[in-house]
Design brief:
The complex is a heterotrimer.
Chain A: H1 10-37, E1 40-42, E2 49-51, H2 55-62, H3 64-97, H4 102-110, H5 117-128, H6 134-141, H7 152-180, H8 184-192, H9 197-227, H10 229-235, H11 247-257, H12 261-289
Antiparallel strand pairs in A: 1-2
Helix pairs in contact in A: 1-12, 2-12, 3-4, 3-7, 3-9, 5-7, 5-10, 7-9, 8-9, 9-12, 11-12
Chain B: H1 2-20, E1 30-36, H2 42-56, E2 60-66, H3 70-82, E3 89-93, H4 97-101, E4 107-108, H5 110-117, H6 128-133, E5 144-156, H7 157-162, H8 174-186, E6 193-195, H9 198-209, H10 216-219, H11 233-247, E7 251-253, E8 271-275, H12 279-285, E9 290-293, E10 310-318, H13 328-342, H14 344-354, H15 361-369, H16 372-375, H17 381-387, H18 404-419, H19 425-448
Parallel strand pairs in B: 1-2, 1-3, 6-7, 6-8
Antiparallel strand pairs in B: 3-10, 4-10, 5-8, 5-9, 5-10
Chain C: H1 4-27, H2 32-36, H3 48-58, H4 69-100, H5 106-115, H6 125-134, H7 141-149, H8 152-163, H9 167-175, H10 180-191, H11 193-208, H12 212-217, H13 226-234, H14 243-263, H15 265-276
Helix pairs in contact in C: 1-14, 3-14, 4-7, 4-8, 4-11, 11-15, 13-14
The chains are: A mainly alpha, B alpha/beta, C mainly alpha.
Chain lengths: 292, 449, 277
C-alpha cells in the first residue's frame, strides 16, 4: 500500500465523478431495475404490474429449458476455455523455444484477437456451411452428414471452434509474454541441475506462469459466457432445437424476443449472482496464490 | 487528458442533441409516424404507396420508417410505447396479433378509430380469412389488414417429367405426395421435398385445412384461457410422416422460418411449401419450369380440405404511451391513411406488384379485369385456397394466441428435435402442447389485470 | 530435426489460423454464382473490384442488404474511438484518485467501480435498454457508447500500474511544491503512455467488436455498425445469398481492428506485459 499520498477530499471525488456517474446510471440503476423487475409480473406494454415475490425465480429454476441452457453454457465455456488456453499455451511454448522466429510467429498468430466474435463465426461459416463451405461440402461428400442447422452436436462444435479460434491469440500473447519474462538464468540453472525439458516445464515454467494462467482463466470464462453472444446469434440462433442456447442467449430470447420481462430479469439476476460468485472465488484464489 | 475528456463529453452531448432534434410538426399537416418491417424491395414499394397518399392530400403526412424485421419492429414499438414515444401506426406480423389484442388501452381498435373519425371502410368486402384474422370474436375490426399471403406448394415440372410424373397434375393429397416423392427419389433427386416456415406451414396450415383446432376456445379467439391442442391424431400422424420421410431422405429440413426458401429455386428439391410470395423470387432465380398448387390434405379426414390461413401483417394504431396522449386530429389522420389503403385499385396494384394476395374481393376483380391471372398462371391458386369452403370456421379463422412468437419457435424447436431423431411425432406434439401451455398461462396471468 | 519441431507446429498453427480468412479473402474475389454453386475456389478470381465496390457503395443488393460499408465503417470507427478514449480517460482519473488520495468513501468508490466487472452489459441488457429508451438515447451514438464507457478493467489495470510507482516520485513532487494535478500531468501521464497505448488497442477492439448492444440500441440504418451489418447480411444463411459481397464485407469489417493490432503491435505487447506485472 502506498504511504505517501496527496491530501484533499473534493479533488479525488471530482476525479471519480465521471466513472461513478456512468456506473450509477448504466450499471447500478439497471442492475437494481433488473432485481426489482425480477420480482414483478408485467404485461409487455407495461400497463399492469404485480408484485409476485420470488415466483419468477422458482419458475425459471424449475424450467427444463433453463437447465438445458445452463448445461450448454457449462459445456460451451469449459470447452472454449480448455481449447483456447491449451492451444495457446502449446503454441507459446513452441514460439518461446525458437528464439529467432518468436516475433514473426507472434505477428502471424495474434491478429485473430482483433476479429469480432460475430465475424469469426461468419468466417467459420464460410468453411463449414453444408453447401458452400469447403469443409462442410467435403464432409458431406465423404458420407458424413454434416449440417449444423439440424445436428445439435455439430452446431455446438462449430460455435466452440469459432469462439476458441478467436481467443487463442489473446491467450497466446499473454502466455508468450509470461514465458519470455521468466529469467533465462532460472531455466539455465535448472538445466545445469539436470532437469529434463518436460520436467522443467511442469516444475518451473508452469508455476511461474500460474498468475497468467489464472488471469486468463477468468478472462476466458467471462469471454465464453458473454462475448460469444455474437457467435451464437450470427451462426445458430440458439438452435437447432435449443442445442446451442446458452444462459445469456436465453436472457436475450426471453427479454427481447418474447418480451417476458419478469422471467428475463430473474434470469439476469441469476447470472449476476453467478458472475459475482465466480469473480469472488477467483480473486480470493488469485490473492492467495499470486502476488502482483 | 482533460481536453480529451472534454472533447469526448462534448461529442456525446452533440450526439444527444442530434437525437433530440426530430423534425418538428409545424402547424399543419398532422404528422403520422409509421413503423414498418418490410425489407427491400417490398419496403420501398410500401413507401411509394405512402408517398402517393401524402401527395394526394394536404392535411396528413405519414412518415414511414423501416424498423428491421417484424419481430424487431414489434419489440421496438413496445419499448417505445413504454417510453411514451410509440409511433401512430405500426405494422405487426400476424403472429403478434394475440399480443396486440390483449394490449388493451395501448391499441386504438380500427372500428373505434373509424367511427370517431367518421370514415367508413367496407370490411364485409374483405376476404373472410383475411379480415377474420384481425377481428375480435364479436366481429369488430381491430387492425387494418394489409399485406397478406398464404402458403402454397411449388413444384419443379422438369423433375416431375424426369420421374415419370405428370407435370400438370401436382399431388393433391398427402397420400399422392408420398408416392410422388418416392418416385422423385428413385429418379435421382437427392431430397425431393422441403418446407419453409415449418410451424406455419406444417402445423398451423395443416390444422386449418383439416378443420381441426390448433388450440381450444376457437384457436384463442374466444379468450385468454385457450390451451394448445396439437397433440391430436392428425397432427401426430403428419409429424410422424415428416420424420419418416426425413429419415428416408425424401424430405429435407431446411431450417427455421424461411431459411428453406433457397432450396427450391436452386433446383435442389422438387417441391416445397412456402409463402405464396416466394413466387417473385422464383421468377427471378429459377432456371426450370415450375408450377403452383394448393397445399395437400389427408383424404380420409372428414371435412378436409378447408381454407388455409393467412400470413403477413396488418397495421395497428397505437397510443403514445401508457397514459394515452393522442388527439383527435392524429386519429383522424390515421383513419384517412387507412381509407386510402383500402381502395381496391391501391390494393390490387400492391397485389400484382408484390405477390401478396388481394385482401378485398373488389381488388381481386380489378386484377381479374386487367387479365392479370391469365398473364400470370398460378397466381390465383393462393386466393382460391383462401376462399376454399366458403365462410371460415372457428378452426380456420386464424390464430389468436398470446406469446405466439415464442410458441412458433417452440414448434420449430420440437420439430428440429424430432428430425434429429430424439423423439417421435407423438412426443413432439405433446412437448409442444405442454411448453406452449406454459407460455399461454403465463400470458393469461400477465394480461388478466 | 529437434530444432525443426517447434517451427513445424507453429507453421501448422499459423496455417489453421489463416485458413478461414484465406477462404474469405479468396471468396470475396469471385462472383455470387461460383460461391453459391459450392465450387469453393482456392485461387483469387477476377471479381474483386466489383464485389468490394458493391460492399462499399451499396451494402449489397439482396434481400438482406444493409447500409454501405463506407457508412458502417465510419460508424464503427466513431463508436470504437469514443469507447476507447472515454474508458481510458475516466479510468485514468478514477485510478489516480483511488491510489494517490486517502479520503472518506475511497473504498466504497473502489468497490462500486469494481462491481461493474461483475455486471457485463449482457446480464443487464433489458433494464439498460429501458434506461436508454427513457433517456431518449435510443438510436444515437451517445446511447451506443456511453453505457459501455464505464469499466472496471481499465481502472484496475491503471491502479495496478500506479501502485508500482515508487513513493519517492510523489515525495519529490511534493518537495518541489507540485500539486496533485501537476503530478498527474507531468509525471504520471508520461509514465503511463505505454499502458495507455496498450489499453487503447484493447479497448478500440473491444469497442469495434461490440455486437449485442448495437443490435439492441440502434435500428436506424444510418447508425448501423459494420460487425452487426455484416452478420445481418447472412440472414437465414441460405446458399443463394450474395456471399461474394458478404465476404468482401467481412474482410472490410476485420481490416481496421487487425490493422490496429498489427501496426501498434510493439507498443501493445510492451504495454500488456508491463500492466501484467
Amino acid at each position: 500500500m502506498r504511504k505517501t499520498v496527496f491530501k484533499g477530499t473534493a479533488l479525488p471525488l471530482l476525479l471519480l465523478a465521471p466513472q461513478l456517474v456512468i456506473t450509477a446510471i448504466f450499471f447500478l440503476w439497471p442492475a437494481g431495475a433488473a432485481i426489482w423487475q425480477s420480482l414483478l409480473q408485467e404485461d409487455p406494454w407495461g400497463m399492469s404490474s404485480q408484485f409476485v415475490g420470488i415466483r419468477n425465480f422458482t419458475e425459471v429454476l424449475a424450467e427444463p429449458e433453463w437447465r438445458g441452457a445452463a448445461y450448454n453454457t457449462l459445456i460451451f465455456s469449459t470447452a472454449v476455455a480448455v481449447l483456447a488456453m491449451g492451444t495457446a499455451l502449446f503454441l507459446a511454448v513452441q514460439a518461446d523455444k525458437s528464439i529467432r522466429g518468436a516475433n514473426i510467429y507472434r505477428t502471424l498468430l495474434i491478429w485473430p484477437y482483433a476479429v469480432a466474435p460475430a465475424v469469426a463465426a461468419v468466417l467459420w461459416l464460410f468453411l463449414f456451411h453444408p453447401s458452400i463451405g469447403l469443409v462442410g461440402r467435403a464432409l458431406n461428400e465423404a458420407g458424413i452428414a454434416w449440417d449444423y442447422k439440424l445436428n445439435g452436436n455439430q452446431a455446438m462444435l462449430l460455435i466452440i471452434v469459432a469462439a476458441a479460434w478467436k481467443q487463442v491469440s489473446y491467450n497466446f500473447i499473454f502466455f508468450l509474454a509470461g514465458l519470455q519474462s521468466i529469467p533465462r538464468a532460472v531455466l539455465e540453472a535448472a538445466a545445469i541441475d539436470g532437469a529434463k525439458p518436460v520436467r522443467r516445464f511442469w516444475t518451473i515454467i508452469l508455476p511461474l506462469l500460474s498468475p497468467t494462467a489464472f488471469f486468463l482463466l477468468v478472462v476466458n470464462l467471462v469471454y465464453a459466457f458473454f462475448d460469444t453472444f455474437g457467435v451464437i446469434h450470427a451462426l445458430t440462433g440458439g438452435g437447432p432445437g435449443k442445442a446451442t442456447e446458452t444462459l445469456i442467449y436465453k436472457v436475450y430470447v426471453e427479454g427481447v424476443q418474447n418480451v417476458n420481462l419478469g422471467s428475463s430479469s430473474a434470469q439476469s439476476v441469476i447470472l449476476m449472482i453467478l458472475v459475482i460468485a465466480l469473480t469472488a472465488v477467483q480473486f480470493r484464489f488469485i490473492e492467495r496464490k499470486v502476488h502482483y | 487528458m482533460r481536453r480529451r475528456f472534454l472533447a469526448q463529453a462534448s461529442l456525446a452531448a452533440a450526439a444527444i442533441a442530434a437525437t433530440r432534434t426530430r423534425p418538428a410538426a409545424a402547424q399543419a399537416p398532422v404528422e403520422i409516424q409509421f413503423w414498418h418491417g418490410l425489407a427491400q424491395p417490398l419496403g420501398g414499394q410500401l413507401e411509394v404507396i405512402v408517398a402517393a397518399f401524402n401527395a394526394s392530400q394536404q392535411g396528413v403526412k405519414v412518415v414511414p420508417s423501416f424498423r428491421g424485421s417484424y419481430p424487431e419492429t414489434m419489440v421496438a414499438a413496445i419499448a417505445a410505447f413504454r417510453a411514451n414515444a410509440a409511433p401512430h401506426v405500426v405494422q405487426m406480423f400476424e403472429v403478434g396479433t394475440g399480443t396486440m389484442m390483449a394490449a388493451g388501452r395501448a391499441v386504438k381498435p380500427v372500428y373505434e378509430l373509424l367511427a370517431e373519425a367518421g370514415v367508413s371502410i367496407d370490411f364485409n368486402d374483405y376476404l373472410p380469412a383475411v379480415r377474420g384474422y384481425y377481428q375480435a370474436s364479436d366481429g369488430r375490426q381491430m387492425s387494418m389488414p394489409f399485406n397478406s399471403s398464404t402458403a402454397t406448394m411449388f413444384y419443379n415440372k422438369d423433375h416431375f417429367k424426369r420421374a415419370g410424373l405428370d407435370p400438370e397434375m401436382p399431388p393433391k393429397t398427402w397420400e399422392e405426395l408420398a408416392e410422388a416423392i418416392k418416385k422423385l427419389k428413385a429418379a435421382g433427386i437427392a431430397s425431393p421435398m422441403t418446407t419453409s416456415w415449418p410451424a406455419w406451414v406444417q402445423v398451423e396450415q395443416v390444422s386449418a385445412i383439416h378443420n381441426i383446432p390448433l388450440a381450444s376456445l376457437g384457436n384463442g379467439f374466444d379468450g385468454l384461457g385457450a390451451t394448445m391442442q396439437v397433440n391430436n391424431p392428425v397432427m401426430v400422424r403428419h409429424m410422424n410422416n415428416l420424420i419418416a420421410w426425413q429419415k428416408d431422405g425424401l424430405f429435407k429440413y431446411g431450417g427455421r422460418d424461411n431459411a428453406a426458401d433457397a432450396l427450391f429455386p436452386a433446383g435442389e428439391v422438387s417441391l416445397t411449401m412456402a409463402s405464396s410470395s416466394l413466387r417473385a423470387r422464383l421468377l427471378r432465380e429459377s432456371r426450370f419450369a415450375w408450377g403452383t398448387a394448393m397445399l395437400p390434405y389427408y383424404s380420409d379426414v372428414a371435412g378436409a380440405p378447408r381454407n388455409s390461413i393467412i400470413g403477413g401483417a396488418s397495421f395497428w394504431a397505437l397510443n403514445r404511451g401508457p397514459s394515452g396522449g393522442r388527439n383527435a386530429a392524429e386519429w383522424k389522420g390515421v383513419a384517412e391513411f387507412y381509407r386510402y389503403l383500402s381502395q381496391p385499385e391501391i390494393d390490387a396494384k400492391w397485389h400484382m406488384d408484390t405477390g401478396y394476395v388481394p385482401v378485398r374481393r373488389a381488388s381481386y376483380q380489378v386484377a381479374k379485369s386487367q387479365g392479370f391471372y391469365e398473364k400470370n398462371p398460378g397466381t390465383e391458386v393462393a386466393i382460391e385456397q383462401l376462399l376454399r369452403g366458403g365462410e371460415t370456421t372457428p378452426n380456420t379463422r386464424g390464430i389468436r394466441l398470446g406469446g405466439y412468437v415464442e410458441i412458433r419457435n417452440i414448434i420449430q424447436e420440437e420439430m428440429e428435435k424430432s428430425f434429429q431423431g430424439q423423439q417421435n411425432g407423438q412426443q413432439a406434439m405433446e412437448a409442444v402442447t405442454q411448453r406452449a401451455n406454459t407460455v399461454l398461462r403465463n400470458f393469461e396471468r400477465q394480461n388478466r389485470g | 530435426m529437434k530444432r525443426a519441431w517447434p517451427h513445424l507446429w507453429l507453421l501448422l498453427g499459423v496455417l489453421i489460423f489463416a485458413t478461414p480468412i484465406y477462404i474469405t479473402l479468396i471468396g470475396s474475389t469471385h462472383d455470387a454464382s461460383t460461391i453459391g454453386r459450392g465450387d469453393v475456389p482456392l485461387l483469387p478470381g477476377s471479381h474483386a473490384v466489383e464485389n468490394y465496390t458493391a460492399a462499399w457503395v451499396s451494402g449489397g443488393s439482396g434481400r438482406f442488404a444493409v447500409s454501405p460499408a463506407s457508412r458502417m465503417l465510419l460508424n464503427s470507427t466513431i463508436m470504437a474511438l469514443c469507447i476507447a478514449v472515454g474508458k481510458i480517460a475516466i479510468s485514468l482519473l478514477s485510478a489516480y484518485a483511488v491510489v494517490f488520495f486517502r479520503f472518506p468513501g475511497r473504498m466504497i468508490a473502489f468497490w462500486t467501480i469494481f462491481m461493474t466487472l461483475m455486471l457485463p452489459v449482457e446480464v443487464r441488457i433489458i433494464p439498460t435498454y429501458q434506461v436508454i429508451v427513457s433517456m431518449d438515447l435510443f438510436n444515437s451514438m451517445a446511447g451506443l457508447t456511453i453505457p459501455l464507457i464505464a469499466s472496471a478493467t481499465a481502472t484496475l489495470l491503471f491502479r495496478q500500474f500506479f501502485l508500482t510507482i515508487p513513493d519517492e516520485y510523489v515525495e519529490a513532487a511534493k518537495m518541489d511544491g507540485a500539486g496533485p494535478m501537476r503530478f498527474f500531468r507531468d509525471i504520471l501521464l508520461p509514465l503511463s503512455v505505454t499502458n495507455i497505448a496498450a489499453l487503447f488497442v484493447i479497448l478500440f477492439i473491444y469497442g469495434w467488436n461490440q455486437y449485442l448492444w448495437p443490435l439492441l440500441v440502434v435500428n436506424d440504418r444510418s447508425l448501423e455498425t459494420i460487425v452487426v451489418g455484416m452478420a445481418k447480411m447472412i440472414g437465414t444463411g441460405d446458399a443463394q445469398n450474395e456471399w461474394n459481397v458478404i465476404m468482401a464485407m467481412a474482410v472490410l469489417s476485420l481490416l481496421p481492428p487487425v490493422a490496429v493490432v498489427l501496426l501498434m503491435q510493439r507498443w501493445f505487447l510492451k504495454g500488456l506485459t508491463e500492466t501484467e506485472k
